[in-house]
Write a structure and sequence with these properties.
This protein has about 70 residues and is mainly β. It is about 10% helix and about 50% strand. The termini are far apart.
């Protein structure tokens, strides 16, 4: 599969907090850095996402906001 996203980070799932519709998935990408994504519970089940599973995090956005 080819994708247009250029920001692809590999990591390991450290937590999945499932709600009724959405799930919060936390991914350790190394170096003490984590990324948290919110996806549907259906996607978690369909992709077989669970703690310890290796995943790729794809980031494609028209803007990224930072705050201090």
């Amino acid at each position: 599969m080819q994708i247009s996203a250029r920001n692809v980070l590999k990591g390991r799932v450290t937590a999945v907090k499932a709600g009724d519709v959405n799930a919060q998935v936390t991914v350790d990408i190394g170096g003490g850095n984590v990324i948290t994504s919110v996806i549907t519970v259906d996607s978690v089940e369909q992709l077989g996402i669970g703690e310890g599973k290796e995943v790729s995090v794809l980031i494609k956005a028209s803007s990224v906001m930072l705050g201090v």
